[in-house]
Write a structure and sequence with these properties.
By secondary structure, the chain is an alpha+beta fold. The protein has four helices and five strands, in the order E-E-E-H-H-E-E-H-H. Helix content is about 35%, strand content about 10%. The N and C termini lie far apart (about 60 Å). It holds the Pfam family ALOG_dom.
């Protein structure tokens, strides 16, 4: 196997690329290193955070023993790092979309953030060899928890997360040629 040196001014390329010769033809493959997408980076960070949580759990948990209850525990743990004001039912601003003054209500993880996190962890679980039917991130208690969080936060902030109904697709009429023009 020969090696071809590529100039350093080609972005995202390896400097040494294997070259193979088959008969009289030579083929060189240039593999451009594509950086992972923002989604892939976030999914990796989320997965590493969850695995770290399992290692720090007392007693430490292996991924095979992880259940929906452990995922709920993880979500509640993450709640303390949230940035979304969620008014308690006793707060005078409960249900007020734009409160006129500050209040002592806690900051929590937003429902949309939790929903996205679960989606990424669900995908990462399967990428790391987990079976889809045993995925703790897709368990029923997780879906119920997310629904409760969404509904409570909507009431707390005075907004609704009503399901958007799908509109029926408009039927397209056959195109008529413009009047006065013939082919």
């Amino acid at each position: 196997m020969d090696f071809v040196t590529v100039p350093n001014n080609i972005p995202n390329s390896e400097n040494i690329i294997p070259s193979t010769t088959i008969g009289n033809t030579s083929s060189t493959t240039i593999s451009l290193a594509v950086p992972p997408s923002r989604y892939e980076n976030q999914k990796r960070r989320d997965w590493n955070t969850f695995c770290q949580y399992l290692r720090n759990h007392r007693p430490p948990l292996s991924l095979s023993l992880c259940s929906g209850a452990h995922v709920l525990e993880f979500l509640r743990y993450l709640d303390q790092f949230g940035k979304t004001k969620v008014h308690n039912q006793t707060c005078p601003f409960f249900g007020v979309p734009n409160p006129p003054a500050p209040c002592p209500c806690p900051l929590r993880q937003a429902w949309g953030s939790l929903d996205s996190l679960i989606g990424r962890l669900r995908a990462a679980y399967e990428e790391h060899g987990g079976k889809p039917e045993a995925n703790p991130f897709g368990a029923r208690p997780i879906r119920l928890f997310l629904r409760e969080v969404r509904d409570f936060q909507a009431k707390s902030r005075g907004i609704s997360y009503d399901k958007k109904r799908k509109r029926p697709k408009a039927r397209k009429l056959p195109q008529q040629p413009p009047a006065g023009k013939t082919n």
